[in-house]
């Protein structure tokens, strides 16, 4: 859910992170562990995979060829420096005759790509029955194009190195599977008009982002609305936030600003946030009017 923040502070229930991930040189081998706890899990998995490989009498080169990876990538897996994708784990399990032993690690490895303080949020997104978001500074990460992501991350201060930018881009792209989830979650995005006008990364980046937004807005489970600049009333003056409703009906409110983030689970606060979002939606342009505005801005670029 995070768009720009990295770390969090505050009382109980604070959760923060982008859930950054990593693609290796082979293109899609998966993320790397983000903290010591996750690293321990990944190292243990790697040692298990290496033991099974040696029992089969396979060299890394041959094992990598069977999985479609280089020997160096296999070494990264075995040394706990990279996390294989779920599909790769399944193929490795089959090739090594592990009878499901490696597959038992899939859920733990998936969590390990995130810092401890974001693992709950990463799970929450996948369990979302509904996700609604109000954006005032940048587009929500779930609807950003890859080019827009890079542009925004490149403007961070202090400056992020290229490797970190790549990790965070991969993370945001991976989280966008929620847009096509089955069953499809209900998704609502109210976006401040100023966000639609900021040319972060240049004219071409914004054009691509607006075109992407129009495509997303055509999905039956997605509603996009714009809060116009000339609005005289706005219940969202306190800033951006996101509300996630889990399949069991429990609601969570996420907000971040200037490097601090928090996840609110108090029923009273989540109910108030839900009511506030409802008012924001009523004050924004209708979905049809919003898409017409976006088309107009796109035509002016």
From TrEMBL:
SUPFAM superfamilies: lambda repressor-like DNA-binding domains. InterPro entries: Cro/C1-type_HTH, DUF5753, Lambda_DNA-bd_dom_sf. It comes from the Bacteria. GO terms for molecular function: DNA binding. This is DNA-binding protein. Transmembrane segments: none annotated. Keywords: DNA-binding.
